[in-house]
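Q: How would the structure tokens look for this protein?
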Amino acid sequence: MQSVYDHLVTVLTDKFEADAALIGPDVSLDALELDSLAVVELFVTLQDHWGVPLEGGEAAADLTVRRITEYIESQLAAGHPTAGAADRT
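A: Here is the predicted structure in token form.
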């Protein structure tokens, strides 16, 4: 299974066309030039992929790649479904 961090980087570069050279653990979504609508779309994309609850109110441009990764990993460790869970219904 692809790591959360690696998947997040892939989504940021492929879907949101963020510059891969700028992406690092401590880079904020704002620094990657994601506006508020893009941040919400990112959260929806990650929620769909990992099958974990991501609150829209937490989708802030000042979030770092590390904080998003840690949050998703904590949700997965808490026993929330993983990628493809919705496809198994």
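The CA atoms of residues 51 and 85 lie 6 Å apart.

The chain has a mean pLDDT of 84.

Upvote if useful.
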